[in-house]
Specification:
Blueprint: H1 12-22, E1 29-33, E2 46-47, E3 57-58, E4 62-65, E5 79-87, E6 101-105, E7 117-120, E8 124-127, E9 130-133, E10 143-144, E11 155-157, H2 165-173, E12 178-182, E13 186-191, E14 196-197, E15 208-209, H3 212-222, E16 226-229, H4 237-246, E17 252-256, H5 267-274, E18 276-280, E19 284-285, E20 291-295, E21 298-303, H6 307-325, E22 335-339, E23 344-345, E24 351-359, E25 362-365, H7 374-377, E26 381-385, E27 391-392, E28 397-402
Parallel strand pairs: 5-6, 13-16, 13-17, 14-15, 17-21, 19-24
Antiparallel strand pairs: 1-12, 2-11, 3-10, 4-6, 4-7, 5-9, 8-9, 18-20, 20-21, 22-28, 23-27, 24-25, 24-26, 26-28
Helix pairs in contact: 1-6, 3-6, 4-5
The chain binds ligand LQZAQKY5 and molybdate ion (MOO).
The site of ligand LQZAQKY5 has 27 residues, from helix 3 and helix 6.
Length: 403
Amino acid sequence: MVMKPMKALLDLEAGMRIVMDAARPIERTEQVTLLEAVGRVLAEEVCASMDVPPFARAAMDGYAVRAEDTFGAGNFSPRILELIEVIHAGESARLSVRPAACIQVATGAPMPDGADAVVMVEDTELDRTNVMVYKPVYPQQHASPMGEDIKSGSCVLQRGMRLDPSKIGVLAALGFQKVTVYQKPAVAVIPSGNEILMPGEALSPGRIYDINSYTLSALISENGGLPQIFPIMKDTLEAAISTIREALTYDLIVLSGGSSVGERDMMVEAVERMGEIKFHGIAVKPGKPTLCGVVEGHLLIGMPGYPTSCLTNGYGILAPALRKMSRLGERALASLKAPMVRRYTSTIGRHQYLPVRLDGGEVVPVFKESGAITSMADAEGYIEIPANVDLLEKGEVVEVLLF
Ligand SMILES: Nc1nc2c(c(=O)[nH]1)N[C@H]1C(S)=C(S)[C@@H](COP(=O)(O)OP(=O)(O)OC[C@H]3O[C@@H](n4cnc5c(N)ncnc54)[C@H](O)[C@@H]3O)O[C@H]1N2
Ligand code: MOO
């Protein structure tokens, strides 16, 4: 029976530096429709080739007037203007507004020639073709000039921006149907273990369902990647080598299971033969038996098989790497400070991610064991306990990072 003990554990900062150095932003771009663009990263500078709005328009329902014709109007001294035309949004006036005349306009209708302001309908009264104006307007009041929103020639969105609903609105305003974005990093998600079954398969003794492929894929999607779950890999060196070879068309290879020291943990040997091991074993808890390697220029991260170890490393190591590759940038989790509900002892020498929930304003550790997915599912967030701290006192205020 051959076991391959882990060498000295690497500290988290050094491990992160290695992973982040090997994670390269994707250069490939693609065109997507605006409906597909949310959350994507813009790969082009967007400059306006038109004004928005493309014409001066009424900003209120009412009457387009020459402002000076309303000066001096009051509740007891209305100015009386002649109504010469009525237009709706989408229509243009045939006539221009001459002195002492007005044109009825809907919000969004083009400002008629000659008019420089709109009197709101609430400040008027209509008597056949006479409009009594009870309140004066100043020039440009309730009228939006052409290009008020976006000026033709101005560059409104920059390369590298993440497209959120408002930025997609800018593209729509400029008449874009498609936009050029960076491709998402393609991520091979490779579960391993003879005991692992896909959902839908019948359970048999000693077998369990695959959790990690799904937690990892969800996390990868959330962080700008495109996950592809591979068939469950058998625990043999040949399977590991051929599967990793197949995965070399992906930008990032994430394996789960088989990264520890058991005799069937073939991953380390496979990566050693095919490329370079950057580290094996990192001083975090959970998540110690993590493997990082580079095979033919492709970053490979081997996650521990235990679901909570796998997922906490997903948050701690995989997500930052992916956000660099997908160009989404660092994700700042919301955080709050609260006191510990009880004393908690941690492992000295390992940076701990402790899943917690909040109860009555206090921080309650919910970690059961690395093998339990509910260690994470019952948590609202986590606290980090540095490697050189082994005790948190009851009542000690800690920072909770919220999922
Ligand atoms: N002698 C030692 N044994 C172990 C050590 C150690 O240092 N010395 N480390 C322990 C720690 S810590 C962890 S974490 C686990 C991780 O081991 P592996 O990464 O090699 O993972 P496996 O042995 O393949 O599996 C561990 C556990 O997780 C289950 N598993 C695996 N894949 C999945 C999946 N896709 N979905 C759900 N569950 C999965 C698997 O059945 C095992 O129960 O090693 C400790 N041992
Ligand atoms: O490092 Mo293991 O990941 O504690 O369970």
